[in-house]
Structure formats: C-alpha cells, structure tokens
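Q: Hi! First time asking for a complex rather than a single chain. Here are the components, and I think there are two in total. Is that enough to go on?
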Amino acid sequence: MLILKAVSLGPLHGYGVLLRIHQISGEQLEIQQGSLYPALYRLEHQGLISSEWGESDNKRRAKFYRLTAAGRRQLQAQTETWNRMASLIAGILHTTSEEI
Amino acid sequence: MNPVLRFCSWLMWMTRRPRLEREMETEMRFHIESLAEDLMRSGVSKQEAMRRAQLEFGGIESHKDAVRASLGLRWWDELQTDLRYAWRMMRRNPMFTTVAVMSLALGIGANTAIFSLVNTLILRMLPVRHPEQLVELLHRYPGEPHFNGFSWQAYQLMRNHNKVFSGLTAAVYQSFHVSGGDLEPQTVNGGYVDGSFFSDLGIKPALGQLIGQDDDRMGDPSAVAAVSWS
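A: Yes, that's all I need. Here is the structure of the assembled complex.
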C-alpha cells in the first residue's frame, strides 16, 4: 500500500520510492533497501504498476514505475479498508469503563 | 487480480529471462550507486559510501531470487536444477539407469499389449447380437496368402449346405458415387450385402427398414440401400 501511494504521487524509480516513503512518513519509516524490489516486481506482475526505462536526475538509465488504473482502484480500496479498520480499533482503545 | 494478465506477464518473463536478469542487475546497481552518492554528499568517502550502500541494500543475489519467486519463476528454475541433477546422477550410474529404463519399458510395453487385447476383445465389441460368435471365412490355395473372396456359386453352395454356423452371410466393400438434387456428387464408403446380412447380425434400423430377404433378387432393377451415420 505504501509503494502504491508513493508511486501515485508521480513516476519514481526504485530508489526514489524508498526516498519518497521516507519523506512522506516524516522520516519515520525506513524500508529495508533491497526487499523493495520483489514487492515492486510483484505489483507490476499483478498489473497495479507499470514500468518504463528512462533517464534519472543524474543522467543514468533507471526504471521508472507509475500507477496503473487498476493500481489506483486498488489503492483506493485499500485506503478505505485501512481507514475503517483504524477508526474501529481507535474506538475500541478509547473506550473507558464508564461507557460499558 | 486478472489471472490472464498475470499469466501473460509470467509468460513474458519466462521467455525473456536474459532481459529480466539484465534489468534486475541494472536496477539494483543503480539503486546502490544512488544511495552511495547520497552518502558521499553527506561527507563520506567514496569507498566508505559504496561499502555502506552495499551493506544497507543487502545481498543482491538473494533479492533477485525473491524477485524471481514473486514472478512465479522459481518453480521453473528448481525444476531445471532437479532435472540436471537427475541427469547427472543417471550418467554416473549407468547400470542402475539401464535396469530402471528397461523395467519401465517392459512394464509399459506389457501394459500396452494387454490393454490393446482387452480393448479389442472386451471393451470394443462389434455392435452386433453375438459378437463372440462372429467369424470370417477365408480360403487359401496352397502357397498363396489368405483370401476372403468367394464366387457367388461357392457362397450359395456353402450357405445351402451349412450345418456348422447359425447363419452365413456375404458382403463386398466398395465405394459409391452419390449424387442427387442440388447436392455436390461425393464418394462414400459402402458395400453390397446379401439378404441375410442384417438379420443374421441382429441389427435393428433406427428408422425405416433394413435390407432383407425380399430385396435379395437377381436382376431386380429397384436397388435398395441402408444408410449408416457412424
């Protein structure tokens, strides 16, 4: 879900995905560098993201990933599920003994 | 997810393995180098930056393996290694291999032979009343191969003096040219039979009537025919 979100903000290469997740999480979240790639290839295999080769900022060949229409739908569905779950659990955790 | 799409992607990577390996290598190298450059920008020496980047990235080969697994290519790789291993072991032990191959060959051969016998004798009986009683008469001149053609007189003689079989019937196989109406003329496989053919074999018509004794007259111009759809 994090990868889909990162890629939804604009096409990125693998290293860029990590930087973006690091950045949008307020530098709280770090993903183990290499394990990103199996996830990227799997998402592409499932048709949620697509890739093409392009030139990076430092003028080198890099593979850029972008979100597909199916990926956008998937991200939306997962976001909704996540929000429902989070508010449900938050509600449970906020319950005090007087409310029962 | 769409299984067809996924299969297409699998097939694409399956057939373009060298490209996949190349792309993974380029992509991961690019990642490590970018990471090292960022580290260098924060004041680390080039060598140290490369070392730290590689360490942080982890083993390239194990990540590549995980990518192959996520694309569903792993079982294929494993199958190949297994087959290669099997081949090597067989090469190393030719005696064992010979015995194994021979016993498999004999087993399969014997099974096939038994099955073809059972198939013709039990499973695929002719669709007639008593297929087990059906025999074909052949005659043979000394020094010549078997032959199943008899003259009409010889057949009549045998039929009239038959005390061995419950019935005797005759047939000649031939192709016929059929045409009629606006149909294209075509050649069909068929045969001439005598009047006792269908009744002796106990075949019932699906529609209409079959050729019987009444139709079996010499020199009768009104020819009759039975049509089969099998």
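A: Chain B touches chain A through 31 residues (CB under 8 Å). Let me know if you'd like any chain examined more closely.
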